[in-house]
Amino acid sequence: MRAVLDHVGIAVGDITAALAFYRDALGLEIEAPEDVPTQRVRAHVIPTGESALELLEATAPDSPIARFLQKRGPGLHHITLRVDDIAAALTHLRARGVRLIDEQPRPGAQSALVAFIHPSAAHGVLVELTQARPRTTTLNAKRHQLGDLSLVALHDGLFRLDGGAMFGVVPRTLWAAQSPPDDRNRIQLATRPLLVEADWGRLLIDCGIGDKMDAKQRDIYAIDRQHPLDQALAAEGLSDADIDLVLATHLHFDHFGGATVRRGGRIEPRFERARYMIRRGEWHDATHPHERNRASYVADDFVPLESSGVLDLFDDDQSIRPGVRVVRTGGHCPQHQIVFIESAGQTAVFTADLIPTAAHIRDAWIMGYDLYPMDTLAFKKQFIRESIDREYLIFFEHDPVVAAGYIRERDGRRFVDQVL
Ligand SMILES: [Zn+2]
Ligand SMILES: [Zn+2]
To answer: 349-394, pLDDT tens digit by residue?
Structure first.
């Protein structure tokens, strides 16, 4: 069995005094607390590199932490080892006669599965096993019915971007716990274009990175083409020729690289029957890049659309098709837009680079790439409030694990209730 130290749990009686030591005196960053209702415990996680400290506070008199404090006072409560397959680990231990507290894994903090080994078997230490939420996933197309509209979260492979640039002013100690960086400080990201199927046709929102990059670019961005858009469409019984309309949230290469393909020596529109809808201001910005955004725009992704006569530029926020409308957010780039999809009183929103992954649901977790981060903040604060209150289904274009979910809030802590 392979196991790594995940965290050390410390039972605290007086959380204010404990924070005064761990946060103020030691100067460690502490994450927002998380309640574990099944244990009647509130956990304050302190990331420390690959592992973490976890300050445990009882939330009810019958909490195991309250009983521990009564019997032994504050101090080391448990250590947690992370294993790849917790069910297999428990079977392995049972076969060797190890006394367990939990015969079956159960849900713990941060949506991980956990199980405890009895301290008598571990020389006086309470040992917890945990199986982390998978950090990466095999991409597959995921379908959701929204009233009369069928939504399919497609995929166009994986790539990596610098973790610091993805989280802006957020310290690495905080984001690395959610998105572990590789040895080049890059984190795993997906591209997930969204297909909307309706009686008026098939609309594709963004279209992934595509296949035009050279070897050097593929290395810089760790482009992984094992699960490209063709495969996602084929899994739904579709091909490029079934797409009627392609809509761009903005023209950055990780959103619109898939709009064109190299055929012979030429670069041509990829979806042979489709019209391509792009906001006029974004078209202008992409065709007039400056030093700060030059790396994000690749002319071959969009210029050939114009010469082929398949381009439809539009000016303002508007309805694109029945149930589909665009709203400009600014922030990430001045003309960045998100897409509201509405049917039968339900709303889904394709948030593009406003909320690129589920880790970005906190207001201040804003990408360093954004040209106008204070504009992002203003739009995002109001939008996320509205998403929670009105239960919008949020599509995360770059999350490698969660394609879509509801943002919810409990005891002041936000989390994503995964749907796809
Ligand atoms: Zn972008
Ligand atoms: Zn992006």
So the answer is: 999 999 999 999 999 999 999 999 999 999 999 999 999 999 999 9
- DSSP labels, 183-251: TTSEEEEE---EEEEETTEEEEE--B--S---HHHHHHTT-B-SS-HHHHHHHTT--GGG--EEE-S--
Cα(366) to centroid(ligand 2), Å: 12
CA of 250 to the centre of ligand 1 (A): 7
Span from the CA of 243 to the centroid of ligand 2 (angstroms): 22
CA of 398, nearest ligand number: 2
pLDDT, one tens digit per residue, over 169-189 is 999 988 987 888 888 999 999
Q: What mean pLDDT do residues 10-14 have?
A: 95
For residue 380, what are the contacts with CB-CB under 8 A and spacing of at least 6? 329, 331, 354, 355, 363, 366
- The confidence score (pLDDT) of residue 113 equals 79
Per-residue b or e along 343-361, where b marks 16 or more CB atoms closer than 10 Å to that residue's CB? beeebbbbbbbbbbbbbbb
> What are the start-end ranges of the H helices in 236-298?
253-256, 280-287
pTM for the full predicted model: 0.73
Ligand 2 centroid–CA 17 distance in Å is 42
Could you report the per-residue pLDDT of 303-332, keeping only the tens digit for each?
A: 999 999 999 999 999 999 999 999 999 999
Q: Count of H helices and E strands in the chain?
A: 11, 26
Ligand number nearest CA of 397 is 2
Report the C-alpha gap between 279 and 313 in whole angstroms.
Answer: 6
Confidence of residue 50 (pLDDT cuts 50, 70, 90): confident
- Between the CA of 249 and the centroid of ligand 2 the distance, in Å, is 10
User: Quick one: which of 330, 340, 343, 251 has its CA closest to 297?
Assistant: 251
